[in-house]
Specification:
Layout: E1 2-3, E2 24-31, E3 36-39, E4 44-52, E5 55-59, E6 62-67, E7 81-84, E8 90-94, E9 98-106, E10 114-116, E11 122-126, E12 135-141, E13 152-159, E14 164-166, E15 171-172, E16 174-177, E17 181-193, E18 198-203, E19 212-217, E20 221-224, E21 231-233, E22 238-247, E23 256-257, H1 271-276
Antiparallel strand pairs: 1-20, 2-9, 3-8, 4-7, 4-9, 5-6, 5-8, 7-10, 11-12, 12-13, 13-22, 14-21, 15-23, 16-17, 17-20, 17-22, 18-19, 18-21
C-alpha cells in the first residue's frame, strides 16, 4: 500500500491495529524549537529516531539528552534512537526544529528503555555498481540489540551512488513457515536526494505473473503485508528509506527469495552478510 506524502499533523500514518500491517506502527512528528510531543502505544514497542534535529527524550524516569545529530537531511550524519517499551508513556522536546520518526511493532511484554547513539549503529554495506545493487544499511535496532527488544527491527537504508535496485533479489516474508520464512509486516518512508527524485516500488503476489508498481516520491510511505517487493530509484538520484519490521512470532527475519531470481544471491557481493544482520 502506498500513502503519498501529506501533512499528518503529528498523527500516526500507520496506527495501532492497522488493517494492512497490524504488526507495525509509524508516525512522523514535526516540532518547532521548544515544542513537545507525548505518546503511549499499548501493545506496541517503539523506537524514537530523529530524521533531522535534536530532542530530549523522557521515558517514565529514563532520560536522554540531545538525541539526534542531523540538521540538513537524513544524509547529514548518523542516526540515533531511543527504545520505548510497550505501553510506556514517552515524550520528547525539540531542542531545535525537528522531524522525528516513531517506529513500532506489536509486542505485549514490557522491557527496559535504552538509547542507541551514533557510535553504536551497526552498519553493513553490500552489493556493487556492476550489479546495480550497491547500498548501505544502518541498523538502529538490529542484531546487536536482539536480547533487549521484543519484535521490532528498525534501520535506515541508503542507495550508494545514483540509480540502482534495492530489495533485490525479490523476496517476501508474509508467512510463518520456519525454517524457510517468517511473517514480518514492513513499513518504509522514502526520501530522495535531490528531493525531486523518484523511484518505483514493485508489489508482486506469489500467484501473479505480472505485479503492480507504485510511483514513489520524497515522503512516500509504503506498507507491505504480502508478496515480493523490490524497488528501484531513477538514474541521477540517491534514495533512502526508513524501515520498520515487526515479526509475528519472532524478531529474527527469514526472507524467502523468489525462486526464479534467487540464484543472484550468489552474484551480489556481501548480500549474505546483509541477510544475517536481520536478527
Amino acid at each position: 500500500m502506498h500513502t503519498p506524502p501529506f501533512d499528518n499533523i503529528n498523527k500516526p500514518i500507520v496506527d495501532m491495529d492497522d488493517k494492512n500491517v497490524p504488526l507495525n506502527y509509524f508516525n512522523i512528528v514535526k516540532l518547532n524549537k521548544d515544542q513537545s510531543f507525548e505518546f503511549v502505544t499499548p501493545g506496541y514497542e517503539t523506537c524514537i529516531v530523529p530524521a533531522t534535529g535534536s530532542i530530549d527524550v523522557f521515558v517514565e524516569g529514563f532520560e536522554i539528552k540531545n538525541l539526534g545529530t542531523r540538521t540538513v537531511d537524513v544524509w547529514d550524519g548518523e542516526p540515533e534512537g531511543v527504545y520505548v517499551p510497550s505501553g510506556t508513556k514517552a515524550s520528547f522536546v525539540a531542542i531545535n526544529d525537528s522531524e522525528v520518526f516513531i517506529a513500532g511493532a506489536k509486542f505485549d511484554k514490557t522491557l527496559e528503555p535504552f538509547a542507541v547513539r551514533a557510535n553504536e549503529i551497526d552498519m553493513v554495506q553490500y552489493g556493487s555498481d556492476d550489479t546495480k545493487t550497491h547500498r548501505k544499511i544502518k541498523h538502529i535496532l538490529g542484531a546487536k540489540h536482539h536480547d533487549k527488544v521484543g519484535r521490532l527491527l528498525c534501520n535506515e537504508l541508503y542507495t550508494v551512488g545514483q540509480g540502482g535496485w534495492s530489495g533485490f533479489p525479490p523476496h517476501k516474508h508474509d508467512t510463518d513457515r520456519l525454517p524457510d520464512e517468517t511473517r514480518h509486516d514492513e513499513t518504509y518512508n522514502y526520501r530522495f536526494r535531490p528531493n525531486n527524485g523518484f523511484g518505483f516500488q514493485l508489489f508482486q503476489q506469489v500467484d501473479e505473473k505480472v505485479g503492480k508498481a507504485e510511483h514513489i516520491i520524497d515522503g512516500s510511505t509504503i506498507s507491505i503485508r504480502t508478496g515480493y517487493h523490490p524497488c528501484v530509484v531513477a538514474p541521477g538520484y540517491e534514495m533512502y528509506y526508513f524501515t520498520i519490521l515487526g515479526g509475528l512470532s519472532q524478531r529474527s527475519l527469514v526472507q524467502y527469495f523468489q525462486p526464479e531470481h534467487a540464484y543472484q544471491i550468489e552474484t551480489i557481493p556481501g548480500i549474505k552478510d546483509m541477510i544475517a544482520k536481520y536478527k
